[in-house]
Design brief:
Oligomer: single chain
Distance between the termini: 47 Å
Helix content: 40-55%
Structural class: alpha/beta
Strand order of the largest sheet: 2-1-3-14-6
Number of helices: 17
CATH topology of the largest domain: D-Maltodextrin-Binding Protein, domain 2
Shape: globular
CATH architecture of the largest domain: 3-Layer(aba) Sandwich
Strand content: 5-15%
CATH superfamily of the largest domain: Periplasmic binding protein-like II
Radius of gyration: 22 Å
Amino acid sequence: MRIRSVGMIATALAVALTAAACGGNDKSSSGDTKTAADPASLTAQLTWWDTSDPKNEGPAFQELIKKFNATYPNVKVDYQSVPFADAQNKFKTAAAAKSGAPDILRAEVAWVPELASLGYLYNLDGSELLKDESDFLPTPVSSNKFGGKTYGVPQVTDSLALMYNKKMFEAAGITAAPKTWAEVKTAAAAIKSKTGKQGLYINSGGYFLLPFIYGEGGDVVDAAAKKITVNSPQAVAGIKIAQDLVKDGTAVKPPANDAYGNMMTLFKEQKVAMIINGPWEVNNVKGAPTFGGLENLGVAPVPAGSVKAGGPVGGHNYTIWSGMPQEKVPAAVAFIKFMASAESQAFLAEKVGLLPTRTSAYDQPGVKSNATVAAFKPVLEAAVARPWIPEGGQFFGPMDKMAVETLVQGKDAQASLDTVAKTYKSEVVKDYSN
């Protein structure tokens, strides 16, 4: 039987979690998974939609499932790799139809408020999964909040950084990562002069232009004031900086198609020295035979504009479909507790460079000695939280179009951002002023 009421299912979850906790085998409050006296007695089949990169990250998550099954041999996890670009709408369609949605979804941080507002997620307040909520970093936790309630458990966190080629820097006589866009321009000129290679690549995607907008003190909306700000003078100034870097040759002009893939190919083949990207690509760079290993990878906070430096907070959360059968609750709890534990997060950090969301995970040996994780620490400290509103996941379609118009087609930044603002008003945040 499928439980239809979100209130009923939240109560069932709390009861099941309380019963599970009575087994007495919890080793710590940092995510130990032994929630039953006899884990082998727990029997269920769970479906998990994993939206991570199937090549760079997916194998590590599948390896964790095997570790989970060493303790819970009778909880079968139907692992399904779902393309990130398709998962949000696919989940909403299935959840609305009350059929075909996964029991557990790896949700991007901006998806959680929307899915919660639609009634598609469990309310986890009062559950065993949140008993050690204080161990999680505050910003990843905040992305799971909607209407004063909590609907997810942080999986990984991230932000955009300046990733650079150390050997190319050394060949160009550059001794430190650029801290401003002006310094980026100087560094790119030196790289071009000394090595003949390109200095910078900016991906023509809206998300990747947020550091430029933040750098000038702008944002896409002011959620507190319910105002659209994506076409403010600050936002326009930020986009013009990115646009000028392409126009003057500091940055490679991205192609009209597959700009992201082109960026990663050029970077891995050591044909461009600097890119703006995140920790999800660390394993990809590590495995590139032409790059030179992680010892050749430099990581620094995104360069500052005239106001500040900062990339957008990203990441993913474990969420539970509100239509999941009640009898699966104990198994879902055990699985998420294991996957979100400090030990599992440390494994992912060491294996593929993903950044933990737990404070205690940073004390794990494999994390403390991980140079990549250490390099991303100042990146996270400078990260800017996005507006956690139901419409947050819908901001980037219009932004992507704007990025192509300004970086590839050379269109006027103000005009393109005005179009984004009009789209937000008519289709996304209709009750906001502009």
